[in-house]
Predict the 3D structure of the following.
Amino acid sequence: MSDIEKTKVAIIGSGPAGWTAAIYTARANLSPIIFEGLQPGGQLTITTEVENYPGFPEGVQGPDLMMQFKAQAMRFETVCYSENIVKVDFSSRPFKIWSDNREVHTDSIIIATGATARYLGLPGEEAYYNKGISACATCDGFFFRGKDVVVIGGGDSAVEEATFLTRFCNEVTLIHRRDELRASKIMAKRALEHETLKIRWNSSVVGYHGDDNGVIRAVTLKDTVTGEEVEKEVQGVFMGIGHKPNTEIFQGLLDMDEAGYLITQDNNTYTNIDGVFACGDVQDTVYRQAITASGTGCMAAIDAERWLESQES
Ligand code: NAP
């Protein structure tokens, strides 16, 4: 473990929210320290083409976009550690955070640890990421124009994604393991009354089948009541089974909702602890887009800067 380092602002997480917070705090002369975490660059590094991030009329590869975010932050005085924060102590100021290699004392903290989409966890599933399997219809729906797809889940996310996909796809089937939707009443009604959206009740995806190029061509569906299995030809599988916010190390310290998302005040990024701010998907259950994460990353940086200034006066 190296000597204790001190900073005015530490940023935990390196997706669009974390890097945007770094760019803004660095340009405010706060010399931030950013911890990239276990998945440097966040969820965009496991996507391919990004066509909805403004400023890239031809589209951009997710990993390239994140490298550009990083390069922009590193152009100013940002210190970056490719390490994961494993422990925090917010009980007194300066706050203390630890990675496996170092201890940092910081006057303020910006949490941008993101959320991770849940996948089914079936054997071989990862090989189909970006080859037919997606966890974001808003991001990838356009690539499935005219195709047949299934959306897995029965909550608001699944219903929203499935309804959205009916605009592009030839056939959209919602696959739900029970016979009743979990989605809010209004969203469920919209799905049930939808003209083209199909719903397959009591059904689970239990297997994937790829073509010669390793791209999804079919799924095996199992009836959760009878156990009967059938193969369904599809070119796309969308996960709508929820996200897991990356907030384990903040349990018991910061206010969270039932699912573990950090709760921030309305219209700003303040958490329940003064000097601790949260931005991006770790506090967003609604939008979850790179551009909105960047937006709240900017907000967190400005909130932290102003808060630090108020502590000096
Ligand atoms: P969710 O409400 O937890 O729903 C997850 C769905 O996936 C459930 O229907 C669940 O089935 C199913 N599921 C979970 N694990 C599964 C598995 N291994 N295999 C098959 N199915 C599985 O998650 P969410 O839909 O992402 O919503 C999360 C929160 O965000 C909610 O509070 C929601 O209201 C909110 N949200 C809001 C909006 C909006 O307001 N526009 C949009 C999206 C999300 P069971 O029903 O059987 O448990």
